[in-house]
Amino acid sequence: MVVTRTPLIAGNWKMNLDHLQAVAFVQKLHWTLKDAKFEGNDVELAVFPPFTDIRSVQTLIDADKIPFSLGAQDISSHDSGAYTGEISGLFLSKLKCGYVIIGHSERRDYHNESDEIVAAKTKAAIKHGVVPVICVGETAEDLEKHGASAVPVAQLRVALEGLDKAADIVVAYEPVWAIGSGQAATPAQAQDVCKALRAVIAEMLGDDAAARTRVLYGGSVKSTNIAAFMREPDVDGALVGGASLIVDEFAAIARFPSHVGV
Ligand code: PEP
To answer: Quick one: which of 233, 228, 188 has its CA closest to 215?
Structure first.
């Protein structure tokens, strides 16, 4: 059985755009893509705004039938209770958030999120029907000491421990040294690690899960390099930071099949 994976282009806005700016941005992105006849059928586009924007963006997407998916940038490992400042997966699912980014290197680094916390958040997302986008990646130091795939593979093993084989997940390989640096991995480097991550999914969740799970590359993706990443067999899309905040640039990334003939 041949399983086709719909490419996912995911825009992580980080702490940018308030709810009014978010609405204006999504409207403009929609018009730009509509003019270019983007229907969201061949490529799935998802935006990941800050929590305070989610309700406004969701209302706009629903009302105007915009073919974009919606995600959050973090989730609590708890369902409810005395966890000041945290957001439950239950709240995200009620806001029709289809996805949540988990274990972004900025959260691992600035908020000391361990692999175990990432694993607990992954389980919380799945429990509430929100697809986790599990981020893994090596620092420049890791790369030098252990090569590219050792750390991401180890991180993913912890995140997948105990998951049901049918779990719906996305994995994002984001070398820390490539994030926001303007220095992307080469497509061959991204392919090597994404392939190794898919092998971990096969080993831990089975061949069907490995065949259907999308593995993304993230780190300084732009409209000028997306095509080369998307030609790699194990790269199923991109997690985009900086370039997802520029309408024309993000629209061009989402339209990669039309301008590169992939
Ligand atoms: C990110 O933060 O997930 C990211 C990939 O950022 P950038 O595209 O700016 O490197």
So the answer is: 233
**CA quadruple 6, 67, 16, 123: dihedral positive or negative?**
negative
pTM: 0.97
152 touches ligand 1 (CB under 6 Å): no
Total residues found in the chain within this entry: 262
Closest CA to 102 of 125, 128, 127, 70: 125
Helices 51-63 and 19-35, packing angle to 10 deg: 40
Atom of ligand 1 nearest to the CA of 220: 10
pLDDT bracket for residue 116 (50, 70, 90): very high
pLDDT digits (tens, 9 = 90+) for 61-75: 999 999 999 999 999
Continuous H helices in 42-114: 51-63, 89-94, 105-110
